[in-house]
Design brief:
alpha/beta; Arc Repressor Mutant, subunit A; D-Maltodextrin-Binding Protein, domain 2; 12 helices; LysR family transcriptional regulator; LysR_HTH_N; DNA-binding transcription factor activity; transcription; WH_DNA-bd_sf
Amino acid sequence: MNSIHNGELDLNLLPVFDALIRVRNVSRAAHELNMSQSAVSHALKRLRLFFGDPLFLKTGSGMQPTPRALELLDPVLSVMGTVRGELLVREGFDATVAQRTFSLCLTDMGELIFLPRLISKLRQAAPHCTLRTLQVPVHQIQGVLESGEADLALGSLHSVPEGLFQQQLFMRSFVTIVNRRNRKVGDSLTAEQFFDMEHIVVSLSGRREDSYDSVIDHVAGPRRVYLTTPHFLTVPIIIEENPELIATVPRELATKFASYKSIKMVDTPVKVPSFAIRQHWHPRVQHDAANIWLRRQVKEAFDTVPE
């Protein structure tokens, strides 16, 4: 073991470390690297022998890196970033034969809005690639992108972490959803009703000030908030059972919620500015051929979305 540990590291093992630190799963890493699971397991065994550390431990949520693996993260990602960004960029990315998993940071709202259109496009353009989504608190997004665990973050970030690249995809506006059984609300909602009724707001952090529609409180004054939740998709179900509650959500999401027979959309009776939906990525993949290709697919998928 000492002779292996003191010998030269086989650089062919670094892509295995890179894949495992990102996808946290041996079978997914093998698929991405176009290797067998046994070959990835063998490479991991050699990495463990060389560094004298387990590096990754099996848990219920996947292969979790040890403190030693986290120490190795930056230098390994730096080497892999150089290989991808400077040595292999000329080779481009052949989506027709590539086998890898693209990982996206998305909220449940993002999955509903982005995934159907994106899946349709990627299944045709990259038939052997797959997708994985992660729901990550805003303050952790930079670290997830930097580590390579995610390729892109899609959505509306109130405060974009410093150092990330971003590209606007389209603009969206807010509307309010109410229960059709609420006899106090007709085809429109007055400002007086809006501020008198109790609201549901969505905040990934659980703090009201971080809610997606917090701009309303800033431009029009505080509302009566009854429920703060991290989940968009539970909102129409809650309003269906509680007709006295209302919520203000992005228009595209409200359109989907209107499929509930008890839910209807009305214009938000206060002037609320539109907001931008963007894709974000880390500088280390700015010149990565696969990431460049993925960003282009995302941009093209939503270029035709009406304002």
